[in-house]
Amino acid sequence: MKLLRYGPKGQEKPGLLDAQGKIRDLSKVVADIGGDVLTDAGLARLRALDPASLPVVEGNPRIGPCVANIGKFVCIGLNYADHAAESNLPVPAEPVVFNKWTSAIVGPNDDVEIPRNSKKCDWEVELGVVIGKPAKYIDEANALDYVAGYCVINDVSEREWQIERTGTWDKGKGFDTFGPIGPWLVTRDEVANPQALDLWLEVDGHRYQNGNTKTMVFTVAKLVSYLSQCMSLQPGDVISTGTPPGVGMGVKPNPVFLKPGQTMRLGIQGLGEQTQKTYAAE
């Protein structure tokens, strides 16, 4: 299934994308696409529905973040060896864990705000993993059983705040609008192998990132298991699993950073695409 949320910000309704690409309204079935719906039982209930019995959503509504009320937005850094190299940083021996604030979350096609005085705003296409049941101290061998589904994430990053200022990466990752998520949550059963997905990103039509999740340093299963050793994961939590090479700060000889008025397009095989325009913070 492809689950989504549509409508104005703060007023999103739950939806399902049918086989013909039409949005079907789920608001008579569930209140929203949150952790309570993303459990095995909740997804089984939705899977049993006949999409043709659900109302068609007409027009082209705004698409919101594909998960509501996200509890944790956990991110992984330097999870592709070639991205670590372009960042002039060593390949980590253990996952590099940081967070995005949930206030950074926006829809997949919402505008991205360039912060005041920012000169080093960057892009990162990433595979998002959505947790479907409580996970604590779980084994890697069973870790994917705790995944509800997958989605596209743009881990927008301000490199000066992330790298050049002292402290953790979080402050360079958590600006408002720095977490576009969606368009859909594609349930686990429709993704045969999360380690075999092409992902890409372009800015103003120029392709900067072309990668595949097969080159991850730590697999999705490893990451879910690892994180469950140091925190309890809950249904609706989101993990962003790192980016392949091609980020702006890695462009040689001169890095390239986002400016107001540009357009980012990005996508992952089978998970849909995002488009964001950038604008300057007031």
TrEMBL record:
Residues 72-276 form the Fumarylacetoacetase-like C-terminal domain. One of its GO terms (biological process) is carboxylic acid metabolic process. Keywords: Hydrolase, Lyase, Metal-binding. GO terms for molecular function: hydrolase activity; isomerase activity; metal ion binding; ureidoglycolate lyase activity. Its EC number is 4.3.2.3. Pfam families: FAA_hydrolase. InterPro entries: FAH, Fumarylacetoacetase-like_C, Fumarylacetoacetase_C_sf. It is an enzyme of class 4 (lyase). Its cofactor is Mg(2+). The keyword Lyase applies. Belongs to the FAH family. This is Ureidoglycolate lyase. It comes from Paraburkholderia saeva. The lineage of its organism: Bacteria, Pseudomonadati, Pseudomonadota, Betaproteobacteria, Burkholderiales.
